[in-house]
Amino acid sequence: MWRDAALVAGKDLRIEWRSRVGANQVAPFAVLVLILFAFAFDADRDLLARITAGLFWLAVLLSALLAVQRSFAIEVADSGRDALRLAGLDPAGIFLGKAAALTAQLVALEVLLAAGVVVLYGTQLTSIGLLAATSVCATVGLAGAGTIYGVLAAGVRVRETLLPLLLLPVAAPVLLAATRATEAALIGTSADGWVWVQLLAVFAVTYLAAGALAFGPLLEEA
User: In sequence order, what are the residues at sequence separation of 6 or more whose Cβ sits closer than 8 angstroms to the Cβ of residue 58?
Assistant: First the structure.
C-alpha cells in the first residue's frame, strides 16, 4: 500500500510540476482572493486584524477546491481512471497517494498565503510551532476529504459544481477548527490553540481512514 501510495503521489506531483497549473492558476487565484479581502476591509484595519485567520483559511479552502478538481481531471483524460483500476494498485494506496500529493500542493500554497498575509495585512506570525501543526493537520484533513469527494464527483458531467456542494459541508468543521487554532496562535494564547489542533488531528485521521477503506468501491462506481 505504501509503495503504491508513493508511486501515485510521485506521478501526480510530476504532472503538476511539468504542467505548472498550480503555479500559473491556483496560486495566483489564492493571492487574488487575499488582495480582494484586503481591499474590502482596508477601511477597518482592526476588523481586518481580527478576521485574518478566517480569511486565510477561506482562501485555502477555495484554492483546495481547484486543486481537487485538477487532481481528478488528470485521471478523467485519456481513461486514466481505467488505467488506475487495471494497474493492480492497492485502492488504499491510490487514495493515500493522491491525498499526499494534494497535501504537498496545499502546504506550498499556504506558505505563499502566509507571506501574503504578512505583506498585505501587516500580521505578525507568532507561535510558529502551533501554526505549523495547525497547517499540517488541517491540510491533511482537507486533502483526505477532498480526495474522497473528488472521486465521487469525477465521474459526472457536472463535477465542477457538484464537488463544492459535496465537500464544503464536510470541510466546514476543519475550517472552523483551523481558524480558531490560528487565531489563538496570532494573539498569543497557544494553550487554547492546541485543543483545536487535537480536534483537527481527529478529523484528519477520520477522513484518511474512511478514504482508505472506501476508495476502492468509490473508484469502481465512479
Answer: 33, 175
Angle made by CA atoms 88, 83, 149, in degrees to the nearest 5: 90
Q: Are 133 and 193 in contact (CB under 8 A)?
A: no
Rounded to whole angstroms, how far apart are CA atoms 124 and 193? Answer: 17
From CA 207, how far away is CA 8, in angstroms rounded? Answer: 19
Contact 148, 218 (CB under 8 A): yes
Distance of alpha carbon 100 from alpha carbon 141, whole angstroms: 11
CA nearest neighbour of 131 among 103, 147, 107, 104: 107
pTM as predicted: 0.87
- The residue ranking higher by pLDDT, 208 or 8, is 208
Q: How does pLDDT run across 67-83, given as a tens digit for each residue?
A: 888 877 777 666 666 66
Unique residue bearing C-alpha cell 465537500: 167
Q: 181: which residues sit within 8 A by CB, 6+ positions away?
A: 130, 133, 134, 138, 193, 194, 196, 197, 200
